[in-house]
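Consider the tokenized backbone below.
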């Protein structure tokens, strides 16, 4: 710039397609140029430049901190969603396990009740038929009663059970037949 044209600044162009922020900045720069003059304006801009750099660095730090906070929030939200999904899966598994336990308990109790009813029925029938058919009474009240109770209550039957029942039934009928008086 020369000294003769330093006092005049170019006239602003009409801002038909310019950004409003840029045109406002240009208006401010034009006013400063008119008030201060070119030398003082240059000194003011040089003094303003470090402040603008500091403001820019502060703004960048703030944006970085906001981005990190958003990332931490996203990570925390993802971890919370994963924990919630894991807790729902664990709750569903516990509910299924509890339901199976209830069904197992119901079957066990039903076996106990049926075993008790069968045992009482066999004992009652054995006492009832003892006068007329002693051999049937020994079969109903003997080891077969114990074998059926074991099947219903313990839910198992060993192969030796049937051998034991047949041997014991044979022994009890033999001993009962010897103790019976002959029919008149």
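A designed sequence for it:
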């Amino acid at each position: 710039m020369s000294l003769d044209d330093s006092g005049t600044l170019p006239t602003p162009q009409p801002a038909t397609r310019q950004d409003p922020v840029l045109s406002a900045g240009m208006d401010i720069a034009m006013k400063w140029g008119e008030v201060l003059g070119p030398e003082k304006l240059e000194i003011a801009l040089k003094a303003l430049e470090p402040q603008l750099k500091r403001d820019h660095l502060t703004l960048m730090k703030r944006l970085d901190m906001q981005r990190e906070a958003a990332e931490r929030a996203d990570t925390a939200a993802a971890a919370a969603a994963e924990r919630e999904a894991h807790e729902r899966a664990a709750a569903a598994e516990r509910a299924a396990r509890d339901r199976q336990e209830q069904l197992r308990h119901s079957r066990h109790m039903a076996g106990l009740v049926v075993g008790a009813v069968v045992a009482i029925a066999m004992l009652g029938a054995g006492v009832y038929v003892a006068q007329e058919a002693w051999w049937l009474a020994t079969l109903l009240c003997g080891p077969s009663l114990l074998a059926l109770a074991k099947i219903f209550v313990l839910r198992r039957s060993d192969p030796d059970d049937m051998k034991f029942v047949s041997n014991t039934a044979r022994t009890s009928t033999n001993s009962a037949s010897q103790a019976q008086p002959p029919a008149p």
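Residues 101 and 175 are 47 Å apart (CA to CA).
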